[in-house]
Structures are given as structure tokens and as C-alpha cells.
Design brief:
Distance between the termini: 12 Å
Strand content: 35-45%
Shape: globular
CATH architecture: 3-Layer(bba) Sandwich
Largest sheet: 6 strands, mixed
Radius of gyration: 15 Å
Number of helices: 3
Order of helices and strands: EEEHEEHEHEE
CATH topology: D-tyrosyl-trna(Tyr) Deacylase, Chain: A
Length: 149
């Protein structure tokens, strides 16, 4: 399972012209589910997302977590995180989970967060508007079946 997070001042998601969610200070989390992803991956990544110290303390150092600043997560399903563009000009998405499993594990990630979480619409064409802060962007990977992480 993979999550790309971006620190934001504000972000929103729109589907078919209607805003379906918005946050202020927090993180946009693009959540990708692979064929090998598990519930344990979703829980681990949710904890990592909210505990990462990527917000400034009083001295301007990245030393505070989402939990500490009272921020929120805007979670967006993103199967293209498992796209493989090494060959040809069209990415292959064979490593991505089937939609039903992808939706289940995306929801498991969102449910495991203990900070406020606003969700996009799984499988929908979404427009994401955000005001990046920094910018600070990180990629989190977790595979519960990996030898070492």
C-alpha cells in the first residue's frame, strides 16, 4: 500500500461540479492499494500519516504532528500510484488492487485515522484543489509481507 502526503493550508475535492469535502490545515493523502496490500498496511499507514512530524514548531522546525496541530486529512483514492511506466508510453496498472479490494482498504485506511478525515469518492473522477504548504510532500510505502521496512 502507498500513500503520498502533501502538507496543505487548505484543500477540497469536487465531483461532478459539487464540492464533496474540504479541510483547512492538514494533509492531502493520495491512497494507493496494491494487489499485495493488507489491513495491517492500512492501519500502519494511517498511524504513520497522523504521527509524522511535518508541521512547524515555535522555532520553525518540522517537529509537530497532525495530531498536535489539530489538523485534518483529505483522503483521495489513487490507483495510479501503482502505475508502471517503465515500458512503452502507456502505464500499466496490473499491480493495483481490484476495485472492490481497493475500496475496502482505502476505507480501512480512513477508518484507522483518529484525526478528522474527509474522503473523496472512490472510483470517481475528482478535482482536487489545494494550497500546498512548503511544499512538503512525502511518499509512504508499507507492505506487511516485506522482509524489512
Amino acid at each position: 500500500m502507498r500513500v503520498v502526503i502533501q502538507r496543505v493550508r487548505a484543500a477540497s475535492v469536487t465531483v461532478e461540479g459539487a464540492e464533496v469535502g474540504a479541510i483547512g490545515l492538514g494533509l492531502v493523502a493520495l491512497v494507493g492499494v496494491g494487489q499485495e496490500s493488507t489491513d495491517a498496511d492500512a492501519v500502519w499507514l494511517a498511524a504513520k500519516t497522523q504521527q509524522l512530524r511535518v508541521f512547524a514548531d515555535t522555532q520553525g522546525r518540522m517537529n509537530r504532528s497532525l495530531e498536535e496541530v489539530g489538523g485534518s486529512v483529505l483522503a483521495i483514492s489513487q490507483f495510479t500510484l501503482y502505475g508502471d511506466a517503465r515500458k512503452g508510453r502507456r502505464p500499466s496498472f496490473v499491480a493495483a488492487a481490484e476495485p472492490s479490494e481497493g475500496a475496502r482498504l482505502y476505507e480501512a485506511y480512513c477508518d484507522a485515522l483518529t484525526v478528522p478525515c474527509v474522503r473523496g469518492v472512490f472510483g470517481a473522477h475528482m478535482q482536487i484543489d489545494l494550497s500546498a504548504d512548503g511544499p512538503v510532500t512525502l511518499t509512504l510505502d508499507h507492505a506487511s509481507n516485506a522482509q524489512s521496512i
